[in-house]
Write the structure tokens for this entry.
Amino acid sequence: MIFHEEERSTTVVLTTYAMAHPHARLLIEFGEQESYIGAFDTTYESDNSGELDIEMEDPRYDEFRQVSYGVLEIIQDGPRRFRDVRSTPQKDWLTIDYRDFPTRVVDVDRGVVVYPVDASGQAGESESPASA
């Protein structure tokens, strides 16, 4: 389900790519401040009720799609990564939604720019894997 039109060009793009390439290693960049190599884990519907301690009737209530990645490598660490301390071994995760989306996502093995998409709505041009 799509909750926001922005999701068509953000989380839907990542999910569609993950379904076509389930084992892809992606460089996920949030500007120059934060970046990771990650592998798709799952996608699910979520909301902000827990973040704001609000009920569904509150006008600030929001539902959205999230995409979760297991972090394989930390390039530039930042606040978006979280560690599951209950798992053994402990594992790092990155959860993405339309509200705080990466500036660029690249398949590091195929050299494909997954996001941003081009004007036709397709994943962008290939680049050499070395430049990713």
